[in-house]
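[worker-b] picked up task from shared queue
[worker-b] task type: protein-ligand structure
[worker-b] ligand name resolved to pyridoxal-5'-phosphate; SMILES cross-checked against name lookup, match
[worker-b] sequence length check passed
[worker-b] input payload:
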Amino acid sequence: MFTNVYSPLEKLNHTRLNELWVKRDDQIDPYISGNKWRKLKYNLARARDLQKTHLVTFGGAFSNHLVATAAAAARTGFKATAFVRGEVVDNEMLLLCRLYGMDLRFTDRLSYKDKEALFQKYFGNNPDTFFIDEGGAGADAVSGCAEIVSELPEDVSHLFCAAGTGTTAAGLLSGIKTADSKTVLHVIPVLKGAGFIRDEILKYCDLEGQLVVHNDYHFGGYAKTQPELLQFMKTFIADTGMLIDPVYTAKLFYAIDDLSDRGALKPDEKIVALHTGGLLGIWGMKNELRSIY
Ligand SMILES: *Cc1c(COP(=O)(O)O)cnc(C)c1O
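[worker-b] inference finished, payload out:
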């Protein structure tokens, strides 16, 4: 299943930017969405090489990574267990995880902090299990994300992506380095106080001169929003016909729009925005979204 990827590059109409393109990783799969597919690819390959049969991973109750892992496991014949951060809850995303056969174990926030210890405690004696970090983070995820760059044209001036942990961004920067390309990578952290992201990315790839981190587009922090962002999202989706999510990609496209407004992006430069998927995040913010109509 990880061989043929469908992720077209589509041009977007923009009032000021004549060469704005979107790499549609959201089209790869509705549930193994976007960068989560890229991040899981080599993790699953490794699990299979090691003859493991049971994936064990971690995430919050609205985690795109959990749904992606559950779907990928079911399609490739792995069992899957997830430690879910916090008290017992139910929502659309956890329901999908269950439908895909994932075993959910709600875990208090303190125990959740030490994922290795949790894994050891419950699965340390089980030789069939394979540990996948929260969000799929790690070197295998970076390798998977680096491949995105090889699917892009060589003359891209600016490549944009949203960031949580920065693993996807690290992969893109590695891909740029491998291709010996002049593309500048622009990263939009969705967390507040994400000063650590730059160092996190540079841990995997030292191409410092081609990395720009824009720390002012978090709108209050992770899974936080503001009326201005919701209004932007509403107009954007109706105008382009392309769905974006409130947690990651709305902040990404808002940033591109704002930077072009400020003259930081020139009208004829080739710009690619990576659509990392995550559209199920709409259900995590359905009340806020309903409030704008
Ligand atoms: C998980 C996720 C990200 C963040 O990826 P990182 O590699 O953790 O930076 C970005 N966009 C979407 C849609 C996601 O689901």
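[worker-b] attaching auto-annotations
[worker-b] Residues 166 and 248 are 12 Å apart (CA to CA).
[worker-b] releasing lock
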